[in-house]
Task: inverse folding
């Protein structure tokens, strides 16, 4: 007794057969679009999951996933014996995650700080091209017309906007490879797989983007820049002891916010 294929599978098979045999460009395009339309539920499912994990717009993620589905249909080879839905999933997921990497900044900082950092970089590059030594932070701030604290904020923001910062070892922990993700203790203590680690990074970014500016400066200054409690306290207007206490409270808060999402992955 042979098992019958579900209607969706038979519909895909019929469209794929017609698409492969069609030579007329206009009719071939119409068949491709019909295949894309028939398989949009795949895109919506992936886009919904990614929107829940990353707090990004479902509509934007769906549009990115559609581009991946179109590429999957155009490159699909039925002779390999794989269902279109199975072959399309990597294309859809890849297109959505590429969109997240290229278009979505995890931390939305001040435009003025970003422009300040750009002007500072351009000034230092001009001096380098002219064979001159780079300016000290104090001299650079004088040229830019800003305070040293403002320049340090611009540097911290630029460091935060690099996605790789969470995965790179923090200063002083190169031997163990500890990163920001590692420093926020996992609730179970188990070894996470690569997939769960990737989900954790996205969840962490979705929490970081909700922090107030002083909280971000505190967390990034301590964990990424490895600044002392006294140095951070001077910048934020707190004592070293208060700075340490608030940072520890913030780390505990982040762990508490992440735990429910981690338990559901």
Result:
């Amino acid at each position: 007794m042979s098992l019958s294929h579900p209607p969706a599978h038979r519909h895909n098979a019929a469209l794929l057969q017609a698409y492969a045999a069609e030579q007329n460009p206009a009719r071939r395009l119409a068949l491709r679009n019909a295949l894309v339309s028939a398989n949009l539920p795949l895109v919506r499912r992936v886009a919904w999951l990614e929107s829940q994990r990353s707090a990004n717009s479902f509509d934007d993620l769906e549009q990115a996933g559609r581009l991946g589905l179109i590429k999957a249909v155009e490159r699909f080879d039925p002779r390999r014996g794989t269902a279109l839905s199975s072959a399309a999933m990597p294309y859809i997921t890849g297109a959505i995650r590429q969109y997240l990497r290229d278009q979505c900044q995890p931390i939305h900082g001040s435009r003025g700080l970003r422009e300040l950092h750009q002007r500072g970089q351009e000034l230092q590059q001009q001096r380098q091209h002219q064979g001159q030594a780079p300016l000290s932070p104090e001299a650079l701030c004088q040229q830019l017309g800003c305070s040293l604290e403002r320049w340090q904020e611009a540097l911290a923001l630029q460091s935060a906007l690099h996605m790789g910062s969470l995965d790179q070892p923090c200063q002083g922990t190169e031997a163990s490879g500890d990163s920001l993700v590692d420093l926020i203790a996992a609730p179970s203590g188990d070894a996470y797989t690569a997939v769960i680690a990737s989900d954790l990074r996205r969840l962490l970014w979705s929490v970081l983007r909700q922090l107030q500016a002083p909280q971000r400066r505190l967390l990034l200054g301590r964990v990424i820049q490895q600044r002392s409690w006294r140095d951070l306290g001077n910048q934020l207007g707190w004592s070293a002891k208060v700075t340490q206490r608030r940072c520890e409270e913030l780390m505990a808060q982040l762990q508490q916010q992440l735990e429910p999402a981690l338990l559901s992955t």
About this structure: The longest helix spans residues 240-264. Residues 107-161 form one domain. The chain has 13 helices and no strands.
